[in-house]
Amino acid sequence: MTDPLTSVEIFAGGGGMALGMRRAGFSHEALVEWWSPAAEILRHNAERDSDLWTKDHVLQDDVRRLTSDLAGLRPVNLVAGGPPCQPFSLAGAGAGHSDERNMFPAALDVVRTLMPEYVVFENVPGLTRPSFAPYLDYVHDQLRRPEIRPEEGELWDEHHVRIRSSTVQDLYRVYQEEIEAADLGVAQSRKRIFLIAIRADVAGASSWPGIARTHSRDVLLHEQWITGAYWERHALARPESPGRLKAQIERIRKTGIPTDRLPWQTLRDLLLDVPEPAADIAPEGWPNHLAIPGARTYPRHNGSPLDMPSKAIKAGVHGVGGGEGMMRELDGTVRYLSIREAALVQGFPRDYEFPGVRSRVMGVIGNAVAIDVAARIGEALIAHRVEEESSAQSQRSERQEFAVEVEEILPEARAAAGA
């Protein structure tokens, strides 16, 4: 696999999924994003670092208007993106498939047009709620058999029946995985659903090993409240353990912790070498790192404890995710995360810049796929492919060697048998 693997990113946002897939080894033929603040961030960083992608790769338009244009990019190895999730989130009123913001039909049209080797779609866990289960099954089945297109005026459930009653072979194998970002070492508790489709002719399509979890909440609690190693590492006096954790700590004492996992990364771990945000001019080398005054708590929005992973960075109704955009010290004091700190929580590189007003920029960051999670999925796809191709080659070689041996011993065997 010496040739670079190519990708088309749809609903690219500020580049979270794209940066992760690029780290894994995919190069981008196009990044489609209609929202101006997000598209501007993609273009700005292309100018800053053309090794990411170029301005010409950024297509600022509604993907529904560009689907036929994307056909000229074939062949493409990967189509990836996060179809807007408001229809399936609690915050977005949960209207689901009937919501005009449901972009799964557009995403699936791109898959039908490009027929890539891989598809990766990200969405909120609300997509798996029982009320949406029939529609999620429909999405799965469309990915399995994308060539069975919906007809004009056909209702989605009618189309679903037609897909399932068809006798055509599945073109893709489809896998679903829920990933807690903190379990992969991200300093953020962020659960998301990933739909992963592998074209049936690609090595390894018939299996998916899943993403190995590398970090554990129990290991963190063990280091904090049983051994105290966490506080020693940060040269802090060990505080009194919270009463609400008593039962969990006792459970960990009795059952132990996984020996193959690292502790969850906390906000304190992540920001250890990050300077305090400045009032007026961002510190040199720390773009978008300005202090935001006026942090305050209110019911159910009291910030992210500094000694746990951040709560999920959210876009919020107006671009700022309430208490989730704050950090809370041990003494209870709170302050807003700077734009840079929120970006670091999502895994954006330190030098990746976010031009624009804070509310819009925070919306872009909150809507992004955590970069490290996307990278792990992309790396797993490539590693699985390489492993399966190597295994297939080995099996072919073994069969060829065996065939040669058979040809050599067959005459003698026949003679011995009196043939």
Question: How would you explain this protein's 3D organization?
Answer:
This protein has 419 residues and is an alpha/beta fold. The chain is built from 13 helices and 14 strands. The protein has helices at residues 16-24, 36-48, 63-70, 104-114, 133-144, 156-165, 217-225, 229-233, 246-255, 267-270, 339-345, 358-367, 371-416, and strands at 5-10, 26-32, 58-59, 78-81, 118-123, 172-180, 188-189, 191-199, 215-216, 262-263, 304-305, 310-311, 326-328, 334-336. Strands 3-2-1-4-5-8-6 form a seven-stranded mixed sheet, sandwiched between helices. Strands 11-13-14 form a three-stranded mixed sheet, with no helix packed on it. It has a two-stranded parallel sheet with strand order 7-12. The radius of gyration is 25 Å and the shape is globular. The two termini are 48 Å apart.
Total helices: the number is 13
On the 0-100 scale, what is the average pLDDT? Answer: 89
The largest β sheet comes out as: 7 strands, mixed
- Percentage of β-strand residues: 5-15%
Helix-strand sequence: EHEHEHEHEHHEEEEHHHEHEEEEHHH
Helix content: 25-40%
Radius of gyration: 25 Å
**Strands side by side in the biggest sheet:** 3-2-1-4-5-8-6
